[in-house]
């Protein structure tokens, strides 16, 4: 892993220095994450490793900043007893994968392009929820989840973003971009 990223980082710098980068691209958020784990709604779920290929109708990303003095194990305990468990129960939300951003290192800090929004602090947790129905139908659950995190004093949702499944080869949703 470390060997690959050291090699890849050098290659990116070399490409840009030789005018072989793609400077016109605007990175919205290019960050590396460590996988923490997944909670599933069903006893026989689609494994998170296959979730992007499964064809879910949508996905929701939720960024949580843990409260002062709250560690990952306390946040996990909250999610196993109340938070994510409550969100998944009786819903079309099939799973929640949690990730922690990797702090900037020599590879990312020296990138020859702007990598977009920073990953957040050491207290940031990024969650990806895979949804079987239209994400708009489940959005209240995510609002309630954000409230539950705040009310329990374990953290604060700093971003929640729904995504529709792409219909490859079509202009589906293009008229809805604003």
Q: What is the β-strand count?
A: 5
Strand order of the largest sheet: 1-3-4-2-5
Instruction: Classify the secondary structure makeup into a structural class.
Output: alpha+beta
pLDDT averaged residue by residue: 89
Radius of gyration over all CA atoms, rounded? 18 Å
Helix content: 25-40%
Terminal-residue CA separation: 39 Å
Low-confidence stretches: none
Global morphology:
globular
In what range is the share of β-strand residues?
15-25%
Report on the biggest sheet: 5 strands, antiparallel
Number of helices: 6
- The run of helices and strands is HEHEHHEHEHE
Compact description:
With 178 residues, the protein is an alpha+beta fold. Helices cover 33% and strands 25% of the residues.
Structure description:
The chain is α+β, with helices and mostly antiparallel strands. It is built from 6 helices and 5 strands, in the order αβαβααβαβαβ. The radius of gyration is 18 Å and the shape is globular.
Blueprint (SSEs and pairs):
Elements: H1 2-17, E1 33-40, H2 51-54, E2 58-66, H3 72-81, H4 83-88, E3 93-101, H5 106-109, E4 124-131, H6 135-152, E5 155-164
Antiparallel strand pairs: 1-3, 2-4, 2-5, 3-4
Question: Which keywords apply here?
Answer:
five-stranded antiparallel β-sheet; 178 residues; single chain
